[in-house]
Amino acid sequence: MTAPVPNRHTHTAIIERTGVIIDYRTGSTTVLTGTALARWLDALEQSAAPAPVTVQASAISWGTSESAACLPFLPRPPWRWALAATVLLLCTLGVRQLGSRRTRFGRLVRLAEAGRNLSPPPREQAALAVRSVRWVARFLPARVACLEESTAASLLLACRGRGGAWRHGIATDPIRLHAWICDIHARPVEEPDQTDDYTPLNTPAATAKRHR
């Protein structure tokens, strides 16, 4: 497989002696080892790509984890939050469906990071945004996974003047990706404990090189 060219859209995760490159335009991933990884890391130094992120290995789970057997009860959020969440989730789903399938991931990433230069949200506000989107999602006949949910919640916070809350990260055993919302202290909001297994790839420190 031909390695991608480092650019401001490529994020690199280093897992022991393996590199996982994620293209934030397309969502495609490439795994590199050995000399191919060494060449990639050398090329990063001469590019505008974000600096590589070292991923700590997760505790061994043998590829299994416990999940709830049913959805938890979600009380209806305040109407203004529910209405805004409805509009923004529909907007998110519309952006996902319109345009090329190849760039679908990139379109949602741009939406999710729209408010990245705003002040981070307090935990209570971030939690209300996530719960509002989840409450609305239960009434829509459409697939709403972590990327769509976190994107809509990030937009909802941006409308409230808060941002920089969207996180996208990677975990090991097996290698997997996840998107979520964090609070002002960078802690995951309305997420299970297993989310701590994920190392964020798009923190301000990790992406600083992209904007140099």
Structural class label: alpha+beta
Main beta sheet strand tally, sense and closure: 4 strands, mixed
How many separate domains? 2
- The geometry reads as globular
Helical amount? 25-40%
Tell me the strand order in the biggest sheet: 3-2-1-4
Low-confidence stretches: none
Strand content: 15-25%
Number of helices: 6
- The Cα radius of gyration reads 18 Å
Number of beta strands: 7
Mean pLDDT metric = 89
Distance between the termini: 30 Å
Helix and strand element order: EEEHEHHHHEEEH
Q: Which key features would you list for this structure?
A:
single chain, 6 helices, 7 strands, four-stranded mixed sheet, 212 residues, alpha+beta
Topology:
Blueprint: E1 10-15, E2 18-23, E3 29-33, H1 34-45, E4 53-54, H2 79-97, H3 104-112, H4 123-137, H5 146-159, E5 166-171, E6 176-181, E7 199-200, H6 204-207
Parallel strand pairs: 1-4
Antiparallel strand pairs: 1-2, 2-3, 5-6, 5-7
Helix pairs in contact: 2-3, 2-4, 2-5, 3-5, 4-5
